[in-house]
Input
Amino acid sequence: VQLQASGGGLVQPGESLTLSCAALGGWLFSRIDWYRQAPGKQRELVASIDGFDPTYHTDAVKGRFTIFRNIGKNTVDLYMASLKPGDTALYFCKTGPHWGQGTHVTVSS
Output
């Protein structure tokens, strides 16, 4: 399985961004996680989607981020709204033991 994360960029506080994770050779309904790692901090789980189970979002992003399957694109996307400087990080997607290469998100005015 090869994961490809995309969609990162530089945005201002309060703006939105959508990240996409394509799992090449994988099954879209497997468990797929989005993690992030900010400079000097440990990698943390941001959101998960697994089959038809309820999705998971860490408390820091609840109400602002939404993980969902984009059936048309065959990706698992992370919609991020009301972005804050504290959301600045390298965002990774993961399924099983497989990690994507990460995509940078920078929130700055």
User: Anything to note?
Assistant: The chain has a mean pLDDT of 94. The radius of gyration is 13 Å. The chain is about 0% helix and 50% strand.
